[in-house]
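Notes from hallway chat w/ T.B., transcribed later so I don't forget. T.B. wanted the structure written out for a chain they're using in a teaching module, and asked if we could keep both sequence and structure tokens in one place. Agreed to drop them here.
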Amino acid sequence: MPRCALLAVLLVIPGGPVRAEEPHACAAAVTAMRVRAAALPQGDLSRRFAEADLANAMAELEAGDPGECGELVEHAAHVIETRPYVLRPGEVLHGYGPDGPLPASAAPLR
């Protein structure tokens, strides 16, 4: 009896869906989205949220859940495309600086 393997298609199109049901496909999708996230400005809040989604996607992948990984990659792609998280002039993101979390004694990012 022949064995059948389910292979997922990795489709990364700006603004399009990302399907990553196999571990190697999800890892490739995370890599592609990290490149897109890195194209956003360093202090961009949407970039931070996308990078957090991608870090969580890799954690899910390492935990053996490539389906959840794919969903997180799709969300990161949406965040990168639409950039819904923006600090308005004068707004402050407490706890984060341009290089990540700040020590408790540091001043907030303005």
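Follow-up for T.B.: The longest helix spans residues 45-62. Might be a good example for the class.
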